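Field log, afternoon session.

UNIT: design team B
ACTIVITY: writing a sequence onto a fixed backbone
BACKBONE:
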């Protein structure tokens, strides 16, 4: 199996480089030109013709897209770039996957929903993005689905990894210097490890390879739920238990209204993972186990 991985250095892309390697030859690209066995290629999603050329040159059986415009607040004012990278580049990948009869694996977000209520979102629920980033990710999904290519789209939430910047590491950094932290307590979701996202993609691909009817959209996040406030408190407690010297004395809960951002955030990011667990017989661990593991990696550096 030949796999083209785009976005090789992102949180999820980095983990996919490891996880996909057991499936076959992986050609990994980022936005910069680099030598590959198929010539000098770049996987720049803002250069749609360059992207098409790279896919044709590699001629893969699987395209895995871990690249995206993920700066949620910046996207509000940088609309053209966000739209090209999250929507139009997905369309190019889908068209080329269809032409090659290849699989396309892609990641999306709970931000396609409006964030109301307290019930975990199902794949069949009505979409209504809360911000421009969410709108571009939704359009990307729709372009992939409309292309008729074989696809696996995983909608996920609150991604972290040992490599890269994320909420948990930011909280840890702040807790070392500040006596108090104010953290949003009215947004509910599930922290999701990039390693879990990569491992589940491999399991799903292995099965879908022989069962094309498994193509579709799936919600993917660990078990359980939390708030940003409780997540931060958990991270700080774990670090203390590990012997870290932290200045922080209090983690204060605040509301979303007290922390305005250019892009709105959904209050309810819960995802119902029943479809994924049944389709691929996967077990999704409690979110705390992945976060603890990531912290041990980060703290033992
Ligand atoms: P990261 O921000 O860690 O990685 C995104 C990658 O995309 C980076 O390596 C970045 O490269 C690359 N990229 C950005 N623009 C381009 C471009 N023009 N051409 C090529 N590559 C580009 O994101 P994650 O790994 O966290 O996200 C993976 C997927 O999960 C995305 O589809 C995202 O939308 C989705 N998702 C993420 C969530 C999160 O909390 N992070 C939540 C829900 C879904 P560079 O470093 O060069 O900019």
């Amino acid at each position: 199996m030949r796999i083209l991985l785009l976005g090789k250095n992102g949180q999820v892309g980095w983990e996919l480089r490891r996880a996909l390697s057991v499936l076959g030859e992986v050609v990994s690209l980022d936005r910069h030109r680099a030598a590959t066995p198929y010539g000098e290629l770049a996987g720049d999603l803002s250069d749609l013709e360059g992207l098409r050329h790279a896919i044709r040159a590699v001629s893969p059986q699987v395209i895995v897209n871990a690249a995206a415009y993920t700066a949620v607040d910046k996207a509000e004012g940088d609309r053209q770039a966000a739209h090209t990278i999250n929507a139009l580049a997905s369309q190019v990948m889908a068209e080329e996957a269809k032409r090659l009869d290849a699989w396309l694996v892609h990641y999306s977000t709970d931000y396609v929903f409006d964030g109301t209520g307290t019930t975990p979102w199902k794949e069949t629920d009505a979409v209504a993005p809360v911000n421009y980033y969410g709108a571009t990710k939704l359009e990307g999904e729709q372009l992939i689905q409309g292309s008729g290519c074989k696809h696996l789209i995983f909608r996920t939430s609150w991604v972290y990894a040992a490599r890269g910047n994320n909420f948990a590491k930011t909280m840890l950094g702040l807790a070392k210097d500040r006596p108090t932290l104010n953290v949003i307590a009215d947004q509910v979701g599930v922290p999701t490890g990039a390693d879990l996202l990569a491992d589940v993609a491999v399991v799903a691909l292995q099965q879908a390879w022989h069962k094309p009817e498994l193509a579709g959209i799936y919600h993917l996040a660990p078990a359980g739920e939390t708030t940003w406030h409780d997540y931060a408190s958990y991270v700080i407690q774990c670090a203390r238990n590990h012997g870290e010297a932290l200045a922080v004395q209090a983690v204060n809960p605040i509301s979303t209204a007290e922390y305005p951002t250019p892009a709105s955030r959904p209050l309810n990011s819960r995802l119902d993972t029943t479809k994924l667990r049944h389709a691929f017989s996967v077990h999704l661990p409690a979110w705390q186990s992945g976060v603890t593991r990531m912290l041990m990696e980060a703290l033992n550096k």
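LOG NOTE: The longest helix spans residues 79-100.
NEXT ACTIVITY: expression trials, pending approval
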